[in-house]
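Ticket #154: bound-state structure for FE2/S2 (inorganic) cluster.
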Amino acid sequence: MLSESACRQIQVLMGKYPQKRSALIPSLQIAQKEAGYLSSDTLREISAIFELSPSEVNEVASFYTMFYKKPVGKYVIQACTNISCMLCNAEEIMAHLTKRLGIEPGETTPDQKYTLMEVECLGSCGTSPVVQINEKYYEDLTPEKIDAILDSLE
Ligand code: FES
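RESOLUTION: The complex was predicted; output attached.
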């Protein structure tokens, strides 16, 4: 359930746009920041606030990989495997991540520390291969660099 503070923030956001629907994405960000992910109850609550159908809100939340529909780990690793990254060994990076973490894309480690995701272009093709960990980009990656990054997160 959304907190009073989150509801207030969403109401303020909605007032900033001629069409309140334009505030949907930042409102989903507020809701996710609060709970760590967007539960179906939260999505229903937001659909009521915006006077949209739950499926309309669900469509938006499902389109963007930045929205999580189930609980995630402390660190969410989004590994790009799109064309530029693929040509620069993204498959090797993904294989290294799955081996080191012991999970497949879409899974979370048992200690809830890491969630691994395979994503489309992160918009940093010139520095492929790229992963995003929470809100930070890591570029020009090699398996050795991945190890150093993960060690720094331990
Ligand atoms: S293809 Fe990976 S960042 Fe664009």
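RESOLUTION NOTES: The chain has a mean pLDDT of 96.
TICKET STATUS: resolved
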